[in-house]
Amino acid sequence: MNKSHILQEIKRTAEANGGDPLGESRFSKATGVKKSDWYGKFWARWGDALREAGYAANQLQGAFDKNELLVKYAKYVVELGRLPSSGDLRLKTRSDSQFPSHSVFDNRFGTKLELIKQFADFCRARSEYRELVCLCEEYLASDQSLPEQSEHPNGNIGYVYLVKSGRFHKIGKANSAGRREYELAIQLPEKVSTIHVIRTDDPSGIEAYWHNRFALKRKNGEWFDLSAADIAAFKRRKFM
Fold it and tell me: What are the φ and ψ backbone dihedral angles of 197, each rounded to 5 degrees?
């Protein structure tokens, strides 16, 4: 692991994150680059690595506690009339300087499933937001039947899959987790096997993220020559 590779990954993941560099923990999960790969070797602090990559060191958003974040999230749900996708949160941040970055929600709540669980409890306890509980319950109910259920009731949920045929891997998107494997199997001479499926409310964006990440390993179309580390990085994601 060399310095130039880590700097390149910082820039790549920052671009995929709307221009904002990832925090140390999220960067490690997204790239497989461990703290031990850079700490005490190239930099003493993560902020030093970000500065060398051309970004300001991440500032902790201590001004927002969870209740404040949930209030802002609730007001945005009311504005949209539905639960926002990750793309919605990015757009809101760009248009409203007072709205927290989507990465703040990720850092404070983890997965979207965990966010919605806590948001549902928050809404139940507040009469002005109690009508939003039904949206949370619909989402949570749909999350219990994956990957067999092909679509969210509102039609927003899809899948980004990694399949293997011979020595190459294909990254694509679909509404049904198993449908594309079947379609590919009848088109290709070699057996197709599913390696991993990521459930997402932004299949086009997440597919593009992985295509960009593995761009240097693209062979033809959506087929890639991936290493074991690449595959492990993809398999770490259950929901994006």
Answer: -130, 130
Round to whole Å and give the CA distance between 36 and 58: 20
Give the sign of the dihedral formed by CA 134, CA 140, CA 144, CA 150.
Answer: positive
Question: What type of residue is 85?
Answer: S
Dump pLDDT digits (tens) for 107-136: 778 778 889 989 999 999 999 998 898 888
Pairing mode of beta strands 168-174, 223-224: antiparallel
Enter the pTM of the model.
0.40
User: Within a 10 A sphere around the Cβ of 95, how many other Cβ atoms?
Assistant: 8
Domain definitions of the chain by residue range: 3-52, 66-142, 158-235
Band the pLDDT of 72: cuts 50, 70, 90.
Answer: very high
